[in-house]
Protein backbone atom coordinates (compact mmCIF):
# COMPACT_ATOMS: atom_id res chain seq x y z
CA UNK A 1 0.00 0.00 0.00
CA UNK A 2 1.38 3.35 -1.00
CA UNK A 3 1.96 5.37 2.13
CA UNK A 4 1.39 8.78 0.55
CA UNK A 5 -1.19 9.52 -2.11
CA UNK A 6 -1.72 12.84 -3.80
CA UNK A 7 -4.67 14.34 -5.61
CA UNK A 8 -5.42 15.56 -8.12
CA UNK A 9 -2.83 14.19 -10.53
CA UNK A 10 -2.99 17.44 -12.44
CA UNK A 11 -4.53 20.83 -11.80
CA UNK A 12 -4.93 23.86 -13.99
CA UNK A 13 -5.77 27.22 -12.45
CA UNK A 14 -5.82 30.76 -13.67
CA UNK A 15 -3.27 33.23 -12.44
CA UNK A 16 -4.45 34.71 -9.15
CA UNK A 17 -6.94 31.96 -8.32
CA UNK A 18 -6.26 29.83 -5.25
CA UNK A 19 -4.71 26.43 -5.97
CA UNK A 20 -5.36 23.58 -3.56
CA UNK A 21 -3.46 20.32 -3.52
CA UNK A 22 -4.17 17.32 -1.35
CA UNK A 23 -2.22 14.52 0.21
CA UNK A 24 -3.49 11.55 2.21
CA UNK A 25 -1.25 9.21 4.12
CA UNK A 26 -1.73 5.76 5.54
CA UNK A 27 0.17 6.12 8.82
CA UNK A 28 -1.04 8.61 11.41
CA UNK A 29 2.03 8.32 13.60
CA UNK A 30 4.17 10.71 11.61
CA UNK A 31 4.56 14.29 12.75
CA UNK A 32 6.86 15.41 9.98
CA UNK A 33 5.46 16.56 6.65
CA UNK A 34 6.79 18.72 3.87
CA UNK A 35 5.69 20.01 0.54
CA UNK A 36 8.28 20.19 -2.22
CA UNK A 37 8.01 21.34 -5.77
CA UNK A 38 9.99 20.48 -8.84
CA UNK A 39 10.24 22.62 -11.90
CA UNK A 40 10.89 20.73 -15.09
CA UNK A 41 14.52 19.63 -15.27
CA UNK A 42 15.33 20.93 -11.82
CA UNK A 43 15.76 19.43 -8.39
CA UNK A 44 13.19 19.62 -5.64
CA UNK A 45 12.83 22.67 -3.43
CA UNK A 46 11.05 22.65 -0.10
CA UNK A 47 8.06 24.96 0.26
CA UNK A 48 6.53 24.33 3.67
CA UNK A 49 7.34 22.08 6.63
CA UNK A 50 4.61 21.23 9.14
CA UNK A 51 4.97 19.19 12.30
CA UNK A 52 1.67 19.57 14.17
CA UNK A 53 -2.01 19.71 13.38
CA UNK A 54 -3.17 23.05 12.12
CA UNK A 55 -1.81 25.53 9.66
CA UNK A 56 1.66 26.65 8.61
CA UNK A 57 2.25 29.54 6.25
CA UNK A 58 5.38 30.29 4.24
CA UNK A 59 4.77 33.27 2.02
CA UNK A 60 2.04 32.40 -0.47
CA UNK A 61 2.13 28.72 0.52
CA UNK A 62 -0.02 27.41 3.38
CA UNK A 63 -0.08 23.82 4.58
CA UNK A 64 -2.91 22.34 6.64
CA UNK A 65 -2.33 19.14 8.60
CA UNK A 66 -5.03 16.97 10.14
CA UNK A 67 -3.50 13.74 11.34
CA UNK A 68 -6.80 12.38 12.59
CA UNK A 69 -8.11 12.41 9.03
CA UNK A 70 -4.70 11.43 7.61
CA UNK A 71 -4.66 14.50 5.42
CA UNK A 72 -2.33 17.34 4.62
CA UNK A 73 -3.04 19.99 2.02
CA UNK A 74 -1.20 22.80 0.33
CA UNK A 75 -2.86 26.04 -0.71
CA UNK A 76 -1.14 28.45 -3.02
CA UNK A 77 -2.39 31.99 -2.80
CA UNK A 78 -2.28 34.13 -5.94
CA UNK A 79 -0.48 31.54 -8.06
CA UNK A 80 1.64 32.76 -10.92
CA UNK A 81 2.73 31.06 -14.14
CA UNK A 82 6.16 30.58 -12.56
CA UNK A 83 4.48 28.34 -9.96
CA UNK A 84 3.76 25.79 -12.69
CA UNK A 85 5.59 22.69 -11.52
CA UNK A 86 5.11 19.27 -9.97
CA UNK A 87 4.27 19.46 -6.28
CA UNK A 88 5.26 16.58 -4.03
CA UNK A 89 4.06 15.76 -0.55
CA UNK A 90 6.58 14.05 1.74
CA UNK A 91 6.15 12.29 5.07
CA UNK A 92 8.90 11.11 7.39
CA UNK A 93 8.34 7.87 9.31
CA UNK A 94 10.54 5.83 11.58
CA UNK A 95 11.63 2.76 9.68
CA UNK A 96 14.60 0.43 9.63
CA UNK A 97 15.87 2.04 12.84
CA UNK A 98 15.96 5.38 11.10
CA UNK A 99 13.52 7.76 9.54
CA UNK A 100 12.41 7.11 6.01
CA UNK A 101 10.87 9.77 3.81
CA UNK A 102 7.92 8.75 1.70
CA UNK A 103 6.91 10.86 -1.28
CA UNK A 104 3.63 11.03 -3.11
CA UNK A 105 3.54 10.72 -6.89
CA UNK A 106 3.02 14.46 -7.29
CA UNK A 107 0.46 16.89 -8.64
CA UNK A 108 1.24 18.65 -11.91
CA UNK A 109 0.15 22.26 -11.49
CA UNK A 110 -0.32 24.53 -14.47
CA UNK A 111 -1.01 28.21 -13.86
CA UNK A 112 -2.42 29.97 -16.89
CA UNK A 113 -1.81 33.69 -17.36
CA UNK B 1 26.16 28.52 -1.35
CA UNK B 2 26.05 26.55 -4.59
CA UNK B 3 23.59 24.02 -3.29
CA UNK B 4 23.87 20.31 -3.90
CA UNK B 5 25.92 19.70 -7.02
CA UNK B 6 25.41 16.64 -9.18
CA UNK B 7 27.51 15.67 -12.13
CA UNK B 8 27.09 14.91 -14.90
CA UNK B 9 23.68 16.42 -15.69
CA UNK B 10 23.14 13.86 -18.43
CA UNK B 11 24.80 10.52 -19.01
CA UNK B 12 24.22 8.14 -21.86
CA UNK B 13 25.59 4.63 -21.60
CA UNK B 14 25.32 1.50 -23.65
CA UNK B 15 23.74 -1.58 -22.15
CA UNK B 16 26.27 -3.42 -20.01
CA UNK B 17 28.50 -0.43 -19.38
CA UNK B 18 29.24 1.08 -15.99
CA UNK B 19 27.90 4.45 -14.89
CA UNK B 20 29.19 6.55 -12.00
CA UNK B 21 27.18 9.46 -10.71
CA UNK B 22 28.66 12.12 -8.46
CA UNK B 23 27.17 14.25 -5.76
CA UNK B 24 28.65 17.08 -3.74
CA UNK B 25 26.45 17.89 -0.73
CA UNK B 26 26.10 21.31 0.80
CA UNK B 27 29.07 22.10 2.99
CA UNK B 28 28.25 21.40 6.62
CA UNK B 29 25.51 18.89 5.87
CA UNK B 30 26.20 15.50 7.37
CA UNK B 31 23.36 13.53 5.74
CA UNK B 32 23.34 12.55 2.07
CA UNK B 33 20.51 10.78 0.27
CA UNK B 34 20.16 9.18 -3.13
CA UNK B 35 16.79 8.86 -4.88
CA UNK B 36 15.76 7.56 -8.26
CA UNK B 37 12.93 9.23 -10.12
CA UNK B 38 10.92 7.72 -12.95
CA UNK B 39 7.53 8.57 -14.36
CA UNK B 40 6.20 5.13 -13.46
CA UNK B 41 7.60 4.75 -9.94
CA UNK B 42 7.93 8.37 -8.88
CA UNK B 43 10.62 9.08 -6.30
CA UNK B 44 12.26 5.95 -4.93
CA UNK B 45 14.61 5.98 -1.99
CA UNK B 46 17.91 4.27 -2.66
CA UNK B 47 20.33 4.94 0.18
CA UNK B 48 21.33 7.35 2.93
CA UNK B 49 24.63 8.29 4.58
CA UNK B 50 25.23 10.17 7.79
CA UNK B 51 28.72 11.41 8.58
CA UNK B 52 29.92 9.35 5.61
CA UNK B 53 28.64 6.11 7.10
CA UNK B 54 25.93 4.12 5.32
CA UNK B 55 22.83 4.21 7.48
CA UNK B 56 20.11 2.73 5.32
CA UNK B 57 20.63 1.13 1.92
CA UNK B 58 17.41 -0.83 1.90
CA UNK B 59 16.27 0.85 -1.31
CA UNK B 60 19.32 -0.14 -3.31
CA UNK B 61 18.89 -2.94 -5.82
CA UNK B 62 20.90 -5.82 -4.47
CA UNK B 63 22.91 -6.32 -7.60
CA UNK B 64 24.85 -3.88 -9.73
CA UNK B 65 24.19 -0.79 -7.55
CA UNK B 66 26.63 0.54 -4.99
CA UNK B 67 27.13 3.86 -3.23
CA UNK B 68 30.06 5.30 -1.39
CA UNK B 69 30.90 8.40 0.53
CA UNK B 70 34.68 8.48 0.82
CA UNK B 71 34.74 11.96 2.32
CA UNK B 72 32.30 14.57 3.55
CA UNK B 73 32.42 16.49 0.30
CA UNK B 74 31.23 13.89 -2.14
CA UNK B 75 29.29 10.73 -2.67
CA UNK B 76 29.11 8.44 -5.67
CA UNK B 77 26.48 6.09 -6.98
CA UNK B 78 27.85 3.39 -9.24
CA UNK B 79 25.77 1.18 -11.48
CA UNK B 80 27.53 -1.77 -13.02
CA UNK B 81 26.37 -3.48 -16.19
CA UNK B 82 23.68 -0.89 -16.79
CA UNK B 83 20.34 -2.01 -18.17
CA UNK B 84 17.64 0.00 -19.99
CA UNK B 85 15.42 -0.19 -16.91
CA UNK B 86 18.07 1.77 -15.01
CA UNK B 87 17.23 4.80 -17.11
CA UNK B 88 15.97 7.45 -14.71
CA UNK B 89 16.82 10.72 -13.08
CA UNK B 90 19.02 10.09 -10.06
CA UNK B 91 18.64 12.75 -7.41
CA UNK B 92 21.04 13.45 -4.58
CA UNK B 93 19.95 15.41 -1.53
CA UNK B 94 21.60 16.56 1.67
CA UNK B 95 20.41 17.83 5.03
CA UNK B 96 22.07 19.04 8.20
CA UNK B 97 21.70 15.86 10.16
CA UNK B 98 19.10 13.49 8.79
CA UNK B 99 15.73 12.65 7.26
CA UNK B 100 13.64 14.64 9.72
CA UNK B 101 14.98 17.87 8.33
CA UNK B 102 14.36 19.56 5.05
CA UNK B 103 16.25 18.08 2.18
CA UNK B 104 18.14 20.15 -0.32
CA UNK B 105 18.13 18.46 -3.70
CA UNK B 106 20.53 18.65 -6.57
CA UNK B 107 19.29 19.04 -10.12
CA UNK B 108 19.74 15.34 -10.73
CA UNK B 109 21.60 13.22 -13.26
CA UNK B 110 19.53 11.93 -16.11
CA UNK B 111 20.83 8.48 -17.00
CA UNK B 112 19.86 7.03 -20.33
CA UNK B 113 20.83 3.44 -21.04
CA UNK B 114 20.55 2.57 -24.69
Concise summary:
The complex is a heterodimer of chains A (113) and B (114). Chain A is an all-beta fold. Helix content of chain A is 0%, strand content 61%.
Mean of all residue-level pLDDT scores of chain B: 93
What structural category arises from helix and sheet content of chain A?
Answer: mainly beta
Fraction of residues of chain B in helices?
A: under 10%
- The total strand number of chain A stands at 11
The Rg value of chain B, from CA coordinates, equals 13 Å
Which range best describes the helical content of chain A: under 10%, 10-25%, 25-40%, 40-55%, 55-70% or over 70%? under 10%
Largest interface, C-beta within 8 A: A-B, 22 and 23 residues
The gyration radius over C-alpha positions of chain A equals 14 Å
* Overall outline of chain A: globular
Query: What integer is the average pLDDT of chain A?
Result: 90
Content-based structural category of chain B: mainly beta
Order of helices and strands of chain B: EEEEEEEEEEE
What can you see in these coordinates?
The complex is a heterodimer of chains A (113) and B (114). Chain A is mainly β. Chain A is built from no helices and eleven strands. In chain A, strand 7 and strand 8 form a beta hairpin. The mean pLDDT of chain A is 90. By secondary structure, chain B is mainly beta. In chain B, a hairpin with a 3-residue loop joins strand 4 and strand 5. Chain B is globular and about 35 Å long.
Write the layout of secondary structure elements.
The complex is a heterodimer of chains A (113) and B (114).
Chain A: E1 4-7, E2 10-14, E3 19-25, E4 33-38, E5 44-50, E6 54-58, E7 61-66, E8 71-76, E9 85-95, E10 98-103, E11 107-112
Parallel strand pairs in A: 2-11
Antiparallel strand pairs in A: 1-3, 3-8, 4-5, 4-9, 6-7, 7-8, 9-10, 9-11
Chain B: E1 5-7, E2 10-13, E3 19-24, E4 31-38, E5 42-50, E6 53-56, E7 65-71, E8 74-79, E9 88-95, E10 104-105, E11 109-113
Parallel strand pairs in B: 2-11
Antiparallel strand pairs in B: 1-3, 3-8, 4-5, 4-9, 5-6, 7-8, 9-10, 9-11
Amino acid sequence: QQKVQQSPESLTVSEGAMASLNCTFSDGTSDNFRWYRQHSGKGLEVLVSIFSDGEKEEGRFTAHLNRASLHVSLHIREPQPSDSAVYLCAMSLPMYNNNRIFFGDGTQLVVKP
Amino acid sequence: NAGVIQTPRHKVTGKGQEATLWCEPISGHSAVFWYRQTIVQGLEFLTYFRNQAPIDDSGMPKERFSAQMPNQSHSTLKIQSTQPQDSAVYLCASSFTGPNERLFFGHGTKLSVL
